[in-house]
TrEMBL record, chains A, B:
Organism: Hordeum vulgare subsp. vulgare (Domesticated barley)
Domain named Tetrahydrofolate dehydrogenase/cyclohydrolase catalytic: residues: 86-201
InterPro entries: Aminoacid_DH-like_N_sf, NAD(P)-bd_dom_sf, THF_DH/CycHdrlase, THF_DH/CycHdrlase_cat_dom, THF_DH/CycHdrlase_CS, THF_DH/CycHdrlase_NAD-bd_dom
Disordered: annotated segments: 23-43
Pro residues composition-biased segments: 25-42
Keywords attached to this entry: Hydrolase, Multifunctional enzyme, NADP, One-carbon metabolism, Oxidoreductase, Photorespiration
Protein name: Predicted protein
Family listed: Belongs to the tetrahydrofolate dehydrogenase/cyclohydrolase family.
Length: 374, 374
């Protein structure tokens, strides 16, 4: 089914779809990547921040982010590119620490402990892993987690009944329904049942509508695009007045990312499966958020020199050299892009770790809002 | 305060803001139009449709739209340009007729008469005129209109109480609160009180959210951007896969227009007051929707040859030759644009007449949906 991969950016790389990709990305786009270059064994140096950065700063922090190299971990890459590497793993760790400090401060002042309820339907291993990771992350920062596990054949009514109970529970400040749901359920009915005040995933149409509107603010911003923005902000990437291209228009990444960039006064274009000249449009962008789920789609030739690139894609490609038989690559051809871009997130270790950090941040924000704590 | 105008596109034209403009457009943008050319006395020929077009067709109809010239009316312009003129007045008339036929069919089959409630607060003359026009348009197609007039000093609570009554009234299928509201009222609180099933203006965040999301549809599409799309469709302008630029990002025109174009598979860029190179970006577009409220902002040099232009702007500029002392111009310099574009709406007589037609269409759709009539 899948061919072996010659290089990160080989056009013959066939990605195997992990469930995460299915959850993150809508039906496969019809881009045709341009022919691949010769394989390159060299990869750029992963640069990491030297010191913790405060929560939600908007100042230029690229210098700090590039001040130190990280030690060997899955995100670590080596060698000679010009792009600064945005270390999402490090930023996510800093955010988790900041959230932990705020939770302790809130608990000391009010006695309130933020609570996150997670509803898991079925026994998909990947979903179970995500839920376990979320639970662990909650515990680490002091968020109390509540979990409901329902069998694969549970009814929509049962799921909605549990949501309703959590909606009314004052110790729960955030409710998350783990996707994907079994096929016999209607995602829309279930997600709409979550109170918008506790919709920490930010998927309710009211939250998306408020995100799109001038002069309104959503209760919650969806975690992955919020993480993308946080990486840009903490990397000192100026957004106001800049050209931005978002590749992909899914409800949970591409569309809200575009709306967030526009709220931050970028001039935004959305590139999608029907776009006739994605390369030409993308090359005009100062900021690229790629969230389309196609391995190595964005080649070096698509990138304006100096652009900042946030790569949301997590695509497994066959790799006989890996013990698992595959490895993860982004939507952006890292080898090529890192030679042209000004800053880039690696895959893994870029946007990935930010999603759970933003979930914790949204849960804290919810508890603060509900209890009017500042 | 205002200088006299030398030509439609003179850079020294100072627009006087009518209340409509304030209602349609958010705070003034900071574009700096490029220097104006020498005044041109020539204007293009207004071409109108030869025969009624069916409701919501998607086929190419430019040929029909350009088959006959209209007689003398405020929209009529003369002479030699290449662009086809999209006659909004004629299309709106056709839509009103089509809506009237559908309402009669529904009444015959079910006995139900669609009802539209309009709430007017204060005694602003322009608002009174709009409400009167809407009422007349309703009567003409067979929609029963309900009107509540409240004094300028009415409380927010009073307005919301009337909205609640209409929300519960089964003979009312659409509720419209005439904007702008007095300053002591919170627009958001009031507009959010309208049931989303009766929000024929389509301004509720849920409607905007559903418009932004893939796989969801709003209950209602805001009338003016819906009118823009209808003009494009009925003029045979292909949208799928085309580059589109929306100039302006207001909640009631620019933003929903961009979302609609994207839902129709255009590749959309939104140009706004913080955009650094609006001319360059606009020139890439096959479709331009200008909704920024700056007289003659879009010059001929901004336009790709053959592009389709929908001009939402209605800007009064001083004109000593006019009995009223001013005349209305769009956001697009018509004299220049009509020599470059493939199709263009005039001002007045373009988008303007479409808004009420779409309101009637939304009210009919609402009654059909509530009574499950197809």
């Amino acid at each position: 089914m899948a061919s072996s991969i010659l290089s990160d950016c080989s056009s013959c790389a066939t990605s195997r779809l992990l469930p995460l990709r299915r959850a993150l990305h809508p039906p496969p786009p019809r881009f045709r990547p341009s022919p691949g270059p010769a394989p390159s064994p060299r990869r750029p140096l992963l640069l990491a921040a030297a010191a913790p950065l405060p929560l939600l700063p908007r100042a230029r922090r690229m210098a700090a982010l590039s001040a130190a190299a990280s030690s060997a971990d899955p995100a670590t890459v080596l060698a000679d590119a010009s792009a600064k590497i945005i270390d999402g793993k490090l930023v996510a760790k800093q955010i988790r620490e900041e959230v932990g400090v705020e939770i302790a401060r809130m608990k000391d002042a009010t006695g309130v402990v933020p609570g996150l309820a997670v509803i898991l339907v079925g026994s998909r291993k990947v979903s179970q892993t995500y839920v376990r990771n979320k639970k662990k992350a909650c515990e680490a920062v002091g968020i109390k987690s509540y979990e409901v596990n329902l069998p694969e054949d549970a009814s929509e009514y049962e799921v909605i009944k549990h949501i309703a109970t959590f909606n009314d529970d004052p110790s729960v400040h955030g409710i998350l329904v783990q996707l994907p749901l079994p096929r016999h359920m209607n995602d829309e009915n279930i997600l709409n049942a979550v109170s918008i005040e506790k919709d920490v995933d930010g998927f309710h149409p009211v939250n998306i509508g408020r995100l799109a509107m001038q002069g309104r603010d959503p209760f919650f911003v969806p975690c992955t695009p919020k993480g993308c923005m946080e990486l840009l902000h903490r990397s000192g990437v100026e957004i106001n007045g800049k050209r931005a291209v978002v590749i992909g228009r899914s409800n949970i990444v591409g569309t809200p990312a575009a709306l967030l960039l526009q709220k931050a006064n970028a001039t935004v274009s959305i590139v999608h499966s029907k776009t006739k000249n994605p390369e030409e449009i993308t090359r005009q962008a100062d900021i690229i958020i790629a969230a389309v789920g196609v391995a190595n789609l964005v080649r070096g030739s698509w990138i304006k020199p100096g652009a900042a690139i946030i790569d949301v894609g997590i695509n497994p490609v066959d790799d006989p050299a890996s013990p698992r038989g595959y490895r993860l690559v982004g939507d952006v051809c890292f080898d090529e892009a890192s030679k042209v871009a000004g800053a880039i997130t690696p895959v893994p270790g870029g946007v990935g770790p930010m999603t759970i950090a933003m979930l914790l941040s949204n849960t804290l924000d919810s508890a603060k809002r509900i209890h009017k704590f500042k």
